[in-house]
Each structure stands twice: as structure tokens, then as C-alpha cells.
Amino acid sequence: MTEQELFSTAAITSFALNGRFLAVAEKLAAPAGLTAAWWQVLGAVLPEPLPVAGIARAMGITRQSVQRIADLLVGKGLAEYRENPAHRRAKLVAVTDEGLAAVRRISPQHAQVAHRLAAELGAERFAEIVAALTELAATMDRLELDS
């Protein structure tokens, strides 16, 4: 394969994989009363509260879509806005106890999917694939190919 064919195949495969991950995420999130997008935003702030722009950067989605979802999550009591000591106007989004409980309800089914993938691929091969995807994403970020 030429470099251009490799790039095209990587992109098309990534788009298809993203669609599959989103479909699985919707199925996993629904019983917890979440959507995949809500779960994605809550997941971004589980380790620590972040501003909307920080969530957007981490998730690779637009700031506007994160803002819309954050407002919905706050309205439903799954997240809250907190003061940001680093920036007066850019509030931090933080998960609430109710939001954390919703995310935790996903965990058993999430573990089952992870186990099935690891069983199919083998744990070592699965780790290699994740490492390769992580390296590809970091390289794309470093090269700033989208600017």
C-alpha cells in the first residue's frame, strides 16, 4: 500500500470504528438513563472538574456541543458548574453524586464488553492495538493536520 492508501484506509477504518464504538456506547449508557454523549462528557470530568473548552479538547469534539451537553447535564442534576480559580468566566464542569452513580451503573456491562473484546483478540494483542491507536492519535495531534 502507498502512504496515501495507508492514510485513507486508516481514516476510513477509524470512522467505521468510531461509529461502532458510539453504537455500543449508546446501548451501554441507555439503561443508566444516559446517552453516549452525556457519558462521554461525564467521563471527561470524573478525574477532575474541567472547563468546557478542556472537555472539548480531551474528547475531540466542539466546544459548542460540549456546552450544550453540559447545560443539559447540569439541568438534570448529573453535573454542576463550579467556580474556576484559573479563569473567572470559564466555569468548571464537575460530576455530581447522581452523575457518578449513573456512570457506575454502566460499569458491569462495560466490563462485559471489554472482556469479550479481550477474549476475542487476546489481552496482549488488545493492548498492542490500543497502544497503536494511542500513538496514531498523539502523532495526529503533534502534526496538527487539522489546522
TrEMBL record:
PROSITE patterns: HTH_MARR_2 (PS50995). SMART domains: HTH_MARR (SM00347). Pfam families: MarR_2. Residues 3-138 form the HTH marR-type domain. Transmembrane segments: none annotated. InterPro entries: HTH_MarR-typ, MarR/SlyA-like, WH-like_DNA-bd_sf, WH_DNA-bd_sf. This is MarR family winged helix-turn-helix transcriptional regulator. It comes from Nocardia jiangsuensis.
